[in-house]
Amino acid sequence: MTDAKLPINAEDVRRAAMAIEGAIPHTPMHHSRTLSAITGADVWLKFEIFQFTAAYKERGALNKLLSLPKDTNGVIAASAGNHAQGVSFHAGRLGIPATIVMPEGTPFNKVKRTEELGARVVLSGKTFEEATQAAYDLAEKEGLTFVHPFDDPLVMAGQGTVGLEMLDECPELDTLIVPIGGGGLISGIATIAKAIKPGIKVVGVQTEAFPSMKAVVDGTDLKGSSVTVAEGIAVKKPGEKTREVVKALVDDILIVPESRIEAAILLMMEVEKVVVEGAGAIGLAALMHYKEYFHGRKVGIVLTGGNIDSRLLASAIMRGMARDGRLTRLRIEMMDQPGNLARVTEVVARLGANVIEVKHQREFGAVSLKMTEMELVVETKDRAHADRLVEALEAVGFSVSAAKTV
């Protein structure tokens, strides 16, 4: 059973489930045969990307909004992402005026999307922390209710309904992998999961760029790079209430490198045919990075959101292909004489590779005056195929080097 002294308990989560019933769809929970085979765990996926705003954040936002008096003057939140959309959508649906404060420089598409959902958007501050302070100031000035993205018991309980649905549909799960930013989602999930199934293992995951909850729980001074593809969990300071729950109920917090998150975004696209944002892919990233840790366990993973910038997604795909050896950049040195370019392309064609890009230069290469340098980006089946192409080019006399990937 959960500790009564904690900010929320299992009954809070169950009440939240009843409150939001009908307004928040029960998202699908599917077994992944392919990911299970790849990882050695029995993998189940919770598709929160299929919420209207493509993220679980609607749950906590709605649970909070439903608690407000009918004569409320309006709500305000600080967010440039999923929390903004969750608050905006349900506030608009309930007829509650909503204001969202976003940092200056927030991408136009995020501002436009939030405005389309009915909220007033105020751009203030250069950082999220400055935007949050501006939201508090505006709340006091205009008599608005601040809706915190994670450090609020009603928000935490609302997010916990994700875990309730997971165990209702798949009670045999023995491990849950949950992303951690500020801690609202994992607090709610851990609370209900431990109440239903005390022996279940709840594992949080953070990116190496923002290991803030891990640092707080372990009492260490972990330094992150503060640059991440998992923007949804880019939180420098976790919640005061959420950290209480995490310390009491979460079994472990794992840290994964950014490269694993990028790879997980691509893997989810190729295996499950769905688009997830960085924070939504981090659970799979942890499963891939710590295979032995999860081997043989029945694992539930929350795909928390699918709101990823198109350019970021394109870069993740291309970098992922390069990392897997399916996209390779070759630098080829050759004598500057007729026929050599044709010889290179003949070898590429014979090996069944596909030329994506060609750059041929004489002026800027660090080679002899009688030599020329060619950069070739090729698509291959895998790294072994790329290695065979390099060997074939070297076998006919070319000097070849392949660019390294992270």
* Strand runs, count: 14
Count of domain modules: 3
What is the 3D shape?
elongated
Major sheet characteristics: 6 strands, mixed
N-to-C SSE string, H for helix and E for strand: HEHEHEHEHEHEHEHEHHEHHHEHEHEEHE
Oligomer description: single chain
Order of strands, widest sheet: 1-2-10-7-8-9
C-alpha Rg (nearest Å): 25 Å
Measure the end-to-end span.
44 Å
Uncertain parts: none
Structural class: alpha/beta
- Taking all residues together, what is the mean pLDDT? 91
What's the level 1 CATH class of the largest domain?
Answer: Alpha Beta
CATH topology of the largest domain: the name is Rossmann fold
Helical percentage = 40-55%
Individual helix count? 16
CATH architecture of the largest domain: 3-Layer(aba) Sandwich
Strand content: 15-25%
Provide an overview of this structure:
This protein is an alpha/beta fold. It has 3 domains: 10-56 and 153-320, 3-Layer(aba) Sandwich (Rossmann fold), CATH 3.40.50.1100; 74-143, Rossmann fold (3-Layer(aba) Sandwich); 325-402, Alpha-Beta Plaits. Helix content is 44%, strand content 19%. It has 16 helices and 14 strands. The protein has a 6-stranded mixed sheet with strand order 1-2-10-7-8-9, sandwiched between helices. A 4-stranded parallel sheet has the order 5-4-3-6, sandwiched between helices. Helix 11 (258-272) crosses helix 12 (278-289). Keywords: Lyase, Pyridoxal phosphate. One of its GO terms (biological process) is L-serine catabolic process. Pfam families: ACT, PALP.
